[in-house]
Design a protein that fits this description.
Length: 117
């Protein structure tokens, strides 16, 4: 059974940090491109960060460059999103996605991140 389970969300003050985790099971994790998306209330889901399966190259949305870092551990079957210098506009539900390029993908259930004083 395929599962992606996010954790690490919560309430943090502006300027603070959070580390999100997404634990995967039920598929060959190392062969999937992994991404973090987010969706704020009333807005479309947007891509935040991507890490490839082949060479671990990364890419980020302009809004998070220099503040967020995506990484993966193919032994623990987990993808991480380190978020620093958080802003109120980072408030959203964060989802992880595992994509087998050109074929299929899986989604987690999401974890809420709220940045507020």
């Amino acid at each position: 059974q395929v599962q992606l389970v996010e954790s690490g969300g919560g309430l943090v003050q502006p300027g603070g940090s959070l580390r999100l985790s997404c634990a995967a099971s039920g598929f060959t994790f190392s062969r999937y491109r992994l991404s973090w998306y987010r969706q704020a209330p009333g807005k479309e889901r947007e891509l935040v960060a991507v890490i490839t399966w082949s060479n671990n190259s990364t890419n980020y949305a302009d809004s998070v460059k220099g503040r967020f870092t995506i990484s993966r551990d193919n032994v623990k079957n987990t993808v991480y999103l380190e978020m620093n210098s958080l802003k109120p506009e980072d408030t959203a539900v964060y989802y992880c996605n595992a994509l087998f390029v050109g074929n299929h993908d899986f989604w987690g259930q999401g974890t809420q991140v709220t940045v507020s004083s």
